């Protein structure tokens, strides 16, 4: 674990180490297991950022858990564009299923708000949201988050699936942009 990293022309400092992240993922998985006991669950992973979080959650959940993917884009560089562009639709039938939308980070709430509207049209039995990171200071759209790993300040974060211009996704730790 490095205390500081450089991606392109920006410097980031350690924010959350891998052990802290994994402990939180296990904790969230235990709560999800209790809440969905006896119910088949579909984890719907929002690509690309949530792939690590979704994979680790799935690892700690029941073997009957199904995983599917959807891809949207709302960031350009280090700023949210305010627009959500769907790049890959979910290919699994969600009708009548318990769906847990898995996000890496919720900041403005725009992406989750957009996805929830689209997914409710698929008539799931239930639809909830799990996010590793939540920035309450940045929230612009009212959204209901059911499982939140960490509430964080309104700073740009990389690592554990999150990127800066496609770099940093494979880092095991989370780093915050240095001021």
Approximate shape? globular
**Number of helices, where a helix is a run of at least 4 consecutive DSSP H or I residues:** 3
Oligomer: single chain
N- to C-terminal separation?
21 Å
Order of helices and strands: EEHEHEEEHEEEE
Uncertain stretches: none
* CATH class group: Alpha Beta
Please describe the topology of this protein.
Elements: E1 4-7, E2 10-16, H1 18-35, E3 41-47, H2 51-60, E4 66-76, E5 79-88, E6 98-106, H3 110-120, E7 126-134, E8 147-151, E9 157-158, E10 174-177
Parallel strand pairs: 3-4, 3-6, 6-7, 7-8
Antiparallel strand pairs: 1-2, 2-10, 4-5, 9-10
Protein name: Hypoxanthine phosphoribosyltransferase
Main location: cytoplasm
Organism: Thermonema lapsum
Describe this structure in words.
The protein is of the alpha/beta class. The protein has a single domain (9-73, 84-177), classed as Rossmann fold (3-Layer(aba) Sandwich), CATH 3.40.50.2020. 22% of the residues lie in helices and 38% in strands. It has 3 helices and 10 strands. The strands form 2 sheets. It has a 6-stranded mixed sheet, with helices on both faces. A 4-stranded antiparallel sheet has the order 1-2-10-9. α1 (18-35) crosses α2. The radius of gyration is 16 Å and the shape is globular. One of its GO terms (biological process) is hypoxanthine metabolic process. This is Hypoxanthine phosphoribosyltransferase. GO terms for molecular function: hypoxanthine phosphoribosyltransferase activity; magnesium ion binding; nucleotide binding. It comes from Thermonema lapsum.
């Amino acid at each position: 674990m490095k205390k500081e990293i450089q991606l392109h022309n920006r410097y980031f400092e350690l924010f959350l180490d891998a052990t802290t992240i994994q402990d939180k993922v296990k904790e969230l998985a235990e709560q999800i297991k209790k809440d969905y006991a006896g119910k088949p669950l579909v984890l719907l992973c929002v690509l690309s950022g949530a792939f690590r979080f979704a994979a680790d959650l799935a690892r700690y959940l029941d073997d009957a858990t199904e995983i599917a993917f959807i891809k949207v884009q709302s960031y350009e560089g280090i700023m949210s564009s305010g627009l959500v562009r769907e790049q890959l639709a979910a290919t699994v039938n969600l009708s009548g299923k318990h769906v847990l939308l898995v996000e890496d980070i919720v900041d403005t709430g725009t992406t989750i708000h957009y996805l929830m509207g689209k997914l409710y049209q698929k008539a799931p039995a239930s639809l909830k949201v799990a996010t590793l990171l939540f920035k309450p200071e940045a929230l612009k759209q009212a959204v209901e988050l059911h499982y939140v790993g960490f509430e964080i300040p309104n700073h740009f974060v990389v690592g554990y699936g999150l990127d800066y211009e496609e770099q940093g996704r494979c880092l095991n730790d989370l780093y915050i942009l240095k001021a």
